[in-house]
Specification:
Strand content: 15-25%
Helix content: 10-25%
Mean pLDDT: 90
Length: about 250
Amino acid sequence: MNRIRKIILYGLGGLTVLAFIPLFAAFEAHVINVTAQIENALFVHPESLEYGTVFPQEHLNTSFFVTFSESFSESSQTRVGTIEYAIKQKPKPLPAYVAQIGVDSARAWCHDNYPQTPYDPAITVWQDYLSRCYPTICPALSKHPDNNPSTGPNANNDIGLPAFHNPWTEFAIGKLVKFPNINNDPADTWTIDLAVPCFKGQCAQDWPNFVLGQNPNAGDPLQYELPPELEHQTFGCDLWVEVTKIY
């Protein structure tokens, strides 16, 4: 019995000591200071592309330029030297809606609430959507890389996307390389080609050839015809240059 009693007492004593250990440890602390300066990795110019009034089956080209940000370009910045990015297409909010709730919230709403049913001006969901967002022109915008450099280890490292595609799942892909100084790829110029769609019931007979000539993998050309009720409207699309990897 004494032996058992001793074991129990030792156990209680052990519990008492363990209970007090955190109290003693709390009187000593070590602080590790963490700081970081967060900068954007890319510079994109210009901020907007405007085509003005266009007509069915026209081809209209414009371009934008992508390069390293000033911070990424600094000679003292040698830790990382490669940026991979994607060019995505998303629905564009109307200016009045942006002014009402802010650009980030407006963009998110137009992207998340795009109607899943075919366009019908009598359907409330489409009426509500087009009161906040532009009718989209995203599927008709191609992205063509500059194919520069054309030789060396970084040759043709960008992947374009023809017009008449699915903007929700298909993207153009780019890559910038800072090091080494020879055979690097510090900038990309992308040509954005608007292959203007026609309105259903008003398309030329060669419309299928026009679509498939731009993109042989476009599928049924009829799906890219615009609703005639939207004639005279301004169409829009936001191109997002999104960094996907830095190393």
